[in-house]
Amino acid sequence: MIGVAAFAVGLAALWAVTDVDRARFVRPDDSVTVVDRSGAPLRQERVDGHDRRWVELDDVSPHLIDAIIAVEDQRFYEHEGVDPQAMGRALATSWWPGRRASGASTITQQLVKSVYGRPRGLWDKPQEIVRALLLEERFEKRWILEQYLNRLPYGDRIVGVGRASEAYFGKPASELSVAEAALLAGIPQAPSALDPRRHLPQAVRRQRFVLARMRETGRIDEATHRRARREPISIRARTVRPWRAPRFADAALRAARDGEVRARGGVLRTSLDLPLQDRVERILRAAVTEHAARGVTNGAAVVVDNETGEILAYVGAARGGDAPGGWLDLLEAPRQPGSTMKPFVYELFFERGGTAATVLDDLSRPMTGHAGEIFTTRDYDGRERGPVRARVALSASLNLAALDAARRVGSPRIVRRLRALGLTELEADDRYGPAIVLGGADVRPLELRQAYVTLARGGTRVPLSLAPVSAVTPVRVMDPGAARVTREILADAGARREAFGDDLRALFGEGGFALKTGTSSGWRDAWTAAFTDSITVIVWLGDPAGRPLGGLSGFEGAARPAVRMLHAAHDRLDALGIRRPARAAPPLAQARICALTGELAGPRCAHPIDERFVHGSVPSRVCDAHGEDGAVRLPARYAAWLARAHPAGYALDVAPAEGAVRVEHPRDGARLLIDPARPAAIPLSASIAGARATGARWEIDGRPLETAAWSPSPGSYVLVATVGAARSEPVTVTVEGAP
Hints:
Elements: H1 2-17, E1 32-35, E2 41-45, E3 51-52, H2 62-72, H3 84-95, H4 107-116, H5 124-138, H6 141-149, E4 158-159, H7 161-169, H8 178-186, H9 200-216, H10 222-230, H11 246-257, E5 267-269, H12 274-290, E6 298-305, E7 311-315, H13 342-351, E8 359-362, E9 367-368, E10 374-375, E11 386-389, H14 390-395, H15 399-409, H16 411-420, H17 445-456, E12 460-461, E13 475-476, H18 480-490, H19 493-500, E14 514-519, E15 525-531, E16 535-542, H20 554-571, H21 573-576, E17 588-594, E18 608-614, E19 632-634, H22 639-645, E20 650-652, E21 661-665, E22 671-674, E23 682-683, E24 685-688, E25 691-692, E26 697-700, E27 703-705, E28 709-710, E29 715-723, E30 726-727, E31 731-737
Helix pairs in contact: 1-5, 2-8, 2-9, 4-5, 4-6, 8-9, 9-10, 12-20, 13-15, 13-18
């Protein structure tokens, strides 16, 4: 009697200091099965090593609820968390010789154990009792029962009746028969020993016991009991956990955790098309193998549906495992994109008045890099081509002409546009200079895909998605006319063949496609972007450690696999239900122009060609640049190139052209002394046709100067003045600190 009183006093004291931490009962994350767009499994992701699926109480078969209450806590709906009758019975049977000890813990107490752990110390059991009473006081029986059912252990790291029903019977917990429910109700007593895959006879014996208890407690009648005992038990074999498109599955699970996509019923349906994924993986692995002798150790590729932004194939690493970069997602790795940046600079150039016929200067000029060093660049073959039309320059991927286009657009404007296209990690607008057009800024392949999808769509951007989407809201980023001209140039198979010796059309079949390749400095990265109205493909080949490749260009290494992937994706369009969009784009006008000057063909033009223009941008001036001998007379800025290259069909206009621009101060070769402690602005002046020019714009080492007052630090500089469309010859000056 004294012991009982002491126990009661202890419980009262514990009641005053014990509480229920509701955070411990928060619904845990479910296991997620990642599937492709057709339901084929890619990955089964467990949470904290457990395979679980939470189910609402209304989604649990009443047979299973009856079975568990019958075998675990017959008076669950009568007691208030602790069952004094069961405790008395357990105490009596524990002292009665030959009788099996009877359990006294209620479902509520077992729930407390599963959340707080099993009692170990002297006062742990009383605390368990107090917490059970508090749970019953604060929550409904349905809440307690749902918590309990979803925390029961079922062996093989399976937790909860929902996932156990799926794993062992291949059906939701709402569809269990009486026999199946009884078998599941028996397993939690000894999950490892009663695992029905490994110990089915033992599990069936326990099932018979549960069925007997259900009959004894009136939860089933005798006929139901007999039918359940006769019902054959069919247990599903353990399925091999899928491991397909691993880096894509990683990305999808991250997106699910961030709330960007949602799993429903433990299934995360993605946009990936597994048959296309398999084809893309094979093509990419073959390309890596083919170019392994040139230093290629891995590759990455992504295929996108342009209409919705859905990712259809995603290869983060062509070679996984212990291959270089095999455990990485190389689509997320920053790399130099090489010439794949050029189309976006040309599109801006077209927005600002340029056309496919506009002549650019393919001339080598000293430039300043982002670290302040002076450097010169060349085209991929080491040549300079002098005046060259924008169509030819972009199709042939000429570096020097692209730099001229970038100077005319301005690097701050280029960086802002690239950010709008999805390259959000570019640094300050003025960091890169015109060299950004050559791929001087690191980008991720996944960022590059966003930019090319926008170009493929005619200038409207849509968010890229890892899951199927029903509707998208595009945002206009590019001028539609400028985007169409850019796409039309990239799809010009004749120009591609003239530049690279192959147009790759035989790999694609019927229809045309646009293509742009890129090769980073030092031959470290080989890129290709290929697209149609429907599909965009990005391919990267290289070495994840950044070691140089053996002179492998983007066209030679990445173009063929990219076009093969594009063809494979088009083969799947009908199967995927992807419609071929008819994109509205401004119509193009055609005009006969001079191939050398880009102006309307005149009587002396020996090489007229047809060019296409957005309406309103057709040249109005007729070419009169040819002399009597037919040669094009070039302004003075081409003098050095003419002397070096001796090209046919060109000559220097020896008479000073009206409106020629000249740098008057400082003169070419000047040495300027400054006081580093008190630097002063150096005035800049230029003349046009011998008269002082007003409103001249200045470039210092290829970067625009905002004012005509220049405050340099010691070093060597190249200055160019521009008035209207006329540019001066560059002058080189040296700035020194005065002693």
